[in-house]
Design goal:
single chain, about 60 residues, alpha+beta
Length: about 60
C-alpha cells in the first residue's frame, strides 16, 4: 500500500514534551528516563479512580 500524501520536505523540530498515558511501572520509568536522559518534559495522564479505572483506593 502506498500513501497518497506527498513526502515531507521538512520535519518540524520536536517540542521536547511527551504525554504518557497509564499508571504502570513502564509509564513511570519512561517519564523519568525522558526527563533524565533526553531533557524532555513528560506529562503522565493517570486513569480515573472515581470511575474505577485507577489503582486501588487506600481509604
Amino acid at each position: 500500500m502506498t500513501s497518497t500524501h506527498p513526502p515531507l520536505q521538512h520535519v518540524a523540530p520536536r517540542s521536547q514534551h511527551a504525554v504518557i498515558c497509564g499508571d504502570e511501572d513502564l509509564a513511570r520509568r519512561l517519564a523519568v528516563e525522558l526527563d533524565a536522559v533526553c531533557g524532555e518534559t513528560a506529562t503522565v495522564v493517570l486513569p480515573s479512580r472515581r470511575d474505577e479505572h485507577g489503582g486501588a483506593s487506600t481509604s
